[in-house]
Design goal:
The structure holds 2 protein chains of 2 kinds. By secondary structure, chain A is an all-alpha fold. Chain A is about 75% helix and about 0% strand. Chain A contains 12 helices and no strands. The N and C termini of chain B lie far apart (about 35 Å). By secondary structure, chain B is mainly α. Chain B has a domain at about 5-50. Chain B has 3 helices and no strands. Chain B has helices at about 5-15, 25-30, 35-50. The chains are: A mainly alpha, B mainly alpha. Chains A and B meet through α1, α2, α3, α9 and α11 of A and α2 and α3 of B.
């Protein structure tokens, strides 16, 4: 029998070439703008990641309300409670990286992020509140499934000349997210079978992948630093 | 979707390279819901509009954060 995660992977595989092309363009090695683009990347990732814990908290609250009549809500809520603790404070890491890279953490809090960030996180708020919180696992699956490679932080440090302290979040997520992904896949495959949930998961994951490809492509073609 | 071939034809027509996929992957794709198929077609259309100048090569570098 096919697992939920095997089905999800097969669907996401269709967008894998575009994802690889977008990350290749983002980290193009012979570009003199790479250090500025890295700072721009930190601004957008901060805008995205600061929604992670609030989204999970909202989804966990919705699970608690659904639990009496929804067999998926209990295990989903328990996964989210665990993961909230694992992800808390990572937005602060990004602000520290930003300062080390020459960015402005105060500006990060007041700047208007790319509308793509609002599209990506905003869709999750809608699905959690008005459909089913299982949608959030499709979002998490794509973001943690496309985490930085283990070698990326060191390579960027060499290519940009920025201090090692500017790469903590990239470095830590490269190490942490493979473990997180295993926990997530285990949770997904243990949820009670529900075709409607599988469709929502896939739609959420595909939309997230498309947003990420769009965001990386946008960053690859714009100059970095505060606007 | 009820017609397996129609789903694969729509994916092919949208520009997805599905001929190299495994039987297991194709089996998943033939079961795509109308919503999933619509999202994939929409995504592909938008990606084609902003065709990345740089083609994928080498190891996957990643960069997404949650």
């Amino acid at each position: 029998m096919k697992t939920v995660t095997a089905g999800l992977r097969a669907k996401l595989e269709l967008l894998a070439p575009a994802m690889t092309a977008a990350t290749t363009a983002l980290w193009l090695p012979d570009d003199p703008e790479l250090s500025r683009r890295y700072v721009a990347y930190l601004y957008e990732m901060h805008a995205l990641i600061r929604a992670s814990v609030p989204l999970m908290e909202r989804a966990a609250r919705r699970c608690a309300r659904l639990a009496p009549s929804d067999p998926a809500a209990g295990p989903l809520g328990r996964y989210l409670e665990r993961h909230i603790d694992e992800e808390r404070g990572h937005d602060a890491w990004l602000l520290e990286d930003m300062a080390a890279a020459g960015g402005d953490p105060v500006y990060a809090a007041r700047r208007l992020p790319s509308p793509i960030v609002a599209d990506m996180a905003g869709a999750q708020y809608y699905w959690i509140e008005h459909h089913h919180p299982v949608a959030l696992l499709g979002y998490i699956r794509v973001l943690e499934g496309n985490a930085p490679a283990s070698w990326l932080a060191d390579r960027l440090a060499v290519r940009t000349g920025l201090p090692g302290a500017a790469f903590r979040t990239v470095r830590e997520h490269a190490a942490l997210d493979s473990g997180h992904l295993a926990d997530l896949d285990e949770t997904l495959d243990a949820l009670p079978p529900a075709p409607a949930h599988s469709t929502l998961l896939a739609v959420s994951a595909l939309r997230t992948a498309a947003g990420l490809i769009g965001l990386f492509s946008q960053l690859a073609t714009t100059q970095g630093g505060p606007e | 979707m009820t017609d397996d071939h129609a789903v694969l034809e729509r994916l092919r027509a949208a520009g997805f390279s599905i001929d190299a996929l495994s039987d297991e992957q194709l089996d998943v794709l033939t079961g795509l819901s109308a919503h999933e198929l619509h999202v994939l077609e929409d995504v592909k259309r938008r990606l084609d509009d902003v065709e990345p100048e740089v083609r994928a090569h080498g190891d996957f570098a990643g960069g997404a954060l949650f």
